[in-house]
Amino acid sequence: xxxxxxxxxxxxxxxxxxxxxxxxxxxxxxxxxxxxxxxxxxxxxxxxxxxxxxxxxxxxxxxxxxxxxxxxxxxxxxxxxxxxxxxxxxxxxxxxxxxxxxxxxxxxxxxxxxxxxxxxxxxxxxxxxxxxxxxxxxxxxxxxxxxxxxxxxxxxxxxxxxxxxxxxxxxxxxxxxxxxxxxxxxxxxxxxxxxxxxxxxxxxxxxxxxxxxxxxxxxxxxxxxxxxxxxxxxxxxxxxxxxxxxxxxxxxxxxxxxxxxxxxxxxxxxxxxxxxxxxxxxxxxxxxxxxxxxxxxxxxxxxxxxxxxxxxxxxxxxxxxxxxxxxxxxxxxxxxxxxxxxxxxxxxxxxxxxxxxxxxxxxxxxxxxxxxxxxxxxxxxxxxxxxxxxxxxxxxxxxxxxxxxxxxxxxxxxxxxxxxxxxxxxxxxxxxxxxxxxxxxxxxxxxxxxxxxxxxxxxxxxxxxxxxxxxxxxxxxxxxxxxxxxxxxxxxxx
Length: 494
Ligand SMILES: [Zn+2]
Ligand SMILES: [Zn+2]
Prior knowledge:
Largest sheet: 2 strands, antiparallel
Number of domains: 4
Bound molecules: zinc ion
Oligomer: single chain
Distance between the termini: 75 Å
Number of strands: 6
Strand order of the largest sheet: 1-2
Number of helices: 19
Radius of gyration: 29 Å
C-alpha cells in the first residue's frame, strides 16, 4: 500500500500467514522497537539504518490518522515522523493517545508488531504479559480539523522528493527547510520554557514543563507541535531575512539575559544551522528593529492628540490583512505612530503619549510584531498612509476621551433618547452599552482605558458585543451626531 510503514506491512504479512505476531521468531533485525520504527519512518530496510542518537528520532512518537485507518487499516510511515502533525488527505491533526487510558497509540513496549496484527483496534496491553488488551477502535476517534496555517506548513514539510521550498525568499531543499524549522522549533521551545513572559505560550503537558533538552524530545501533543512549527515556519518561510528577523525579534527579546549574550544563549540551546544563524544575527542588530526604524523612516510629524488610542473603524482597511486581528492591528498602528514621534523612546513611552498604561504598549508591541505577516517595509508604508489621513482629519482624540470620561447622567440620557428615536426598541438599561460604544467608536479609545464606570465583566462584554453588532449604520450616525451635539463648544480640532 503506498505510504505504508514497514511494520504495518509486516503485521499484514504475519496475519496473511496465520502467524500471531506475538509468536514471531526473534529475528535479530526485529529485536529493537526503536530500530524497526526508525526504519519504518524512513521507509528503508531495517538492516540499513542504525538508530543514531540524534534526537527527534523517527518513531519516538507514534501517531495515526483515524480517518486513514478507517479507510484501509494501514499505518503510514509518515506518522512516525515527529515533524508530521496532520494528515494532509483528511486535513486533521493526527492522534497520539488512545483515549481509553491516555496512553500512546501503539504502546507496545517490547514488541515492534502488535500481537493482534492488523486492524484498527488500539491493542495496547492492559496488564503485564499476555493479558487483556485495549479494544478501543482507533478508526472511530473523531478527527480534529487543523487550521490553514498548519496545513500549509505541513504541505511544505511533508513534500516528497527534493523541493524546492522557499526559505528566506530563496529556493532550497525540503531537507534543509525541515532542518531549519526543527532547529528553530527547538529554540522557540527553550525560550518558551525559560522566559517568564514569551510572546506566545505553547500548550505543553505538565511533565514537559521541566524539559531542558528540547533537541532530544519534541512535545508529544500534535496540536502543540503544530503550533510551534507554525511560528517557526512564519520565521523561516518569510520573504526575506529582514522579515524573518522582524518576526523572530520578540522571541529574541524574550531570551533570558545571559552573560555571553542572547545569540550565544540561542546557539547553546539549539543547533544553529547557517540559516538560523543569519536570522539570529539579523535579530540582534538594532537597525533591523521596527522600534529603531520607526522614528527614522516614518517621516511624518503628528501632534500626539491627533493619534487615537486605536484607529477608528473607517481607517481599519488600511491595516487589514497583515496577520493581526482587526483590534490588534488598529491598536498597534496607533502605537507605532506614537513611537515614531520625536522624543518618544520606548514602547512604554509611546503608550504614555496616548495616555495608555506603559505595560500595555510593551505587550501590544511584542505580541503584534510577533504576528505581523507583512514585512517591516510594508508595515511602515501602511503607517505612512494612516498618518497622512490622521493629519488631514486633525481630530483631537485626547479631548474626545475626556469628554466621554466625563459624560454625566443627563448627557447619557440625551444619547439614549437619540438612539431610541432612530431605533425604537432600545431599552433604558442600554446606557452603559451606549457609553462604551461612544468610547470605542467616537473617541476611538482603547478598552484598557475605558471610563472606570463602564463595567467590563464577561456578562457585560457579551451584552455589549450583541448590542454593537446589532447597530445599523443609521443608528451609529444618530449616536455620533448626538455626541457631537453634546460636546459642541468643546474644541474638537485645532
Ligand atoms: Zn488521514
Ligand atoms: Zn487503547
